[in-house]
Amino acid sequence: MRTDVVIYTTRICPYCIMAKRLLDKKGAGYTEIDVGSNPGLREELIRKTKRRTVPQIYIGALHVGGFDELYELERLKKLDSLLGIAPQ
After folding, report:
1. CATH number for the domain including 45?
2. For residue 17, what are the domain limits?
3. By 3-state DSSP, what share of the chain in percent is helix, strand and coil, each rounded to 5?
4. What is the pLDDT of residues 70-88, one digit of tens each?
């Protein structure tokens, strides 16, 4: 069973683009929340993650962090199981 993924982004963030590309490569669907043009969503992000930077990525209830942490999970071959997909 695939795990829900939520990614907080802005349109001009290169790390957001890289995170979405990695998730796309994995075939993982995700819900993208663009906080760039909505101060309320930005406040929600800060309240929820205690961070101001994007991307901020959740896989299910797990707060992964940003792109570096997502990529590290991939490097350690842990991302597929978190996403609930068969290894590629």
Report:
1. 3.40.30.10
2. 5-83
3. 45, 20, 40
4. 999 999 999 999 999 876 5
- Nearest Cα to Cα of residue 5 among 80, 86, 87: 80
Q: List the strands of the sheet with 31-34, edge to edge.
A: 31-34, 5-9, 56-59, 62-65
88 in a structural domain: no
pLDDT (tens digit per residue) in 31-72: 999 999 888 999 999 999 999 999 999 999 999 999 999 999
**How many domains are there within the chain?**
1
CB 70 within 8 A of CB 63: no
**1 falls in which pLDDT band (50, 70, 90)?**
low
Q: How far apart are CA 20 and CA 13, in angstroms?
A: 11
